[in-house]
Structure formats: structure tokens, C-alpha cells
Amino acid sequence: MTLSMYQASIPVFKQMLGGLSAVLTKAEAHAQAKKIEPKALLQARLYPDMFPLLRQVQVACDFSKGVSARLAGVEVPGFEDTEENFADLQARIAKTLAFIDSCTAAQMEGSETRQIVTQAGTPKEKIFTGQSYLLNYGLPHFFFHTTTAYAILRHSGVEVGKKDYIGSY
């Protein structure tokens, strides 16, 4: 039995975004319980040259929708980066999940050999097959940003564990 591109992407994105949503819920509750200004958590980062939590969530959503769209052969939806609070981030995750749910297995059929070009026409242009794009570029970047968001919250004292990060499967 072979693993389809759909099976290797969409369920993974949905599971991990669900986990990300859950840890953000815990973070908001933590901020309220400890009387921490929510913006302090949203702007927290692991190191000065890294993105803060808010941006990590935005980028995780961007990778999941971008990879899904490109593998499905549809236009990548553009989301404005206007989120300012936990509710805004939850809405972005929900909007991302709604888009991902619209990508079908039929649309992704054969996408393992589809040519994917990132940053077309720029000096940073990269050309992939769909399979290498998913496995060597898209998923690693997605996991980096979801993991970093989780790590920022854990480092900030939010009581989350591996089960929270992994989400429901």
C-alpha cells in the first residue's frame, strides 16, 4: 500500500494545527490566571533574532495552507498578518483549517511529480517535485514553526506537554 501525498500532508497539518490551537488556549488561560499581559506572551521569543510567538503561529499557518494549495494545484490564499491577540490567532488557525479541508485527495493525486517553484523569478527561486517539496521543505518548515511556538509557551511557564503539542490523532 502506498501513502498518498494527501495522506502525508492534510491529516498531519490538521492534527498539528489542532494541537497549536489547544496550546494557545492554555496560554491565554495561563496569562489570565497569572495576571500576565497577553501581549507579553504573544511577543515572547526564544532568542532576540527569532520570531515571536505571534509570528510563529502565522508562519505555521502559512506553510500548511501554502503546501496544501500547491500540492492541490490551486491558488495559495493570501492572509493578512494583522493578528494582535489570542482570538485573532485562533481565527487564523480556523481559517487555515477551513482552507485545508477544501483541498481534496483527488486534487493532490499525482502531485508527487508536479513541479513546485517557490519564489519564482527571484535569486532565491527553488524548484522541487511535489514529493521533495512536501517532505524536504514544507513539512520541516511547518514543524519548525509549530515546535518553536510550543517551546516559547513552555519556556514562558505555560503548563503544556508533548500530548498538547501532538494534538488529537
Description:
- The protein is mainly alpha-helical and 169 residues long.
- It has one domain: dinb family like domain (Four Helix Bundle (Hemerythrin (Met), subunit A), Up-down Bundle), CATH 1.20.120.450.
- Helices cover 63% and strands 5% of the residues.
- It has helices at 5-33, 38-42, 53-72, 86-102, 105-108, 130-155, 162-166; strands at 115-118, 126-129.
- Strands 1-2 form a two-stranded antiparallel sheet.
- A hairpin with a 7-residue loop joins strand 1 and strand 2.
- The longest helix has 29 residues, at 5-33.
- The radius of gyration is 16 Å and the shape is globular.
The proportion of residues in beta strands is under 5%
What is the annotated CATH architecture? Up-down Bundle
Give the structural class.
Answer: mainly alpha
Number of helices: 7
Give the neighbour order of strands across the main sheet: 1-2
Rg to the nearest angstrom? 16 Å
Distance between the termini: 21 Å
Low-confidence stretches: none
- What is the H-and-E element order? HHHHHEEHH
Topology:
Layout: H1 5-33, H2 38-42, H3 53-72, H4 86-102, H5 105-108, E1 115-118, E2 126-129, H6 130-155, H7 162-166
Antiparallel strand pairs: 1-2
Helix pairs in contact: 1-3, 1-4, 1-6, 3-4, 3-6
What's this entry about, in short?
With 169 residues, the chain is mainly α. 63% of the residues lie in helices and 5% in strands.
Name the features.
single chain, 169 residues, mainly alpha, Four Helix Bundle (Hemerythrin (Met), subunit A), two-stranded antiparallel ribbon, 2 strands
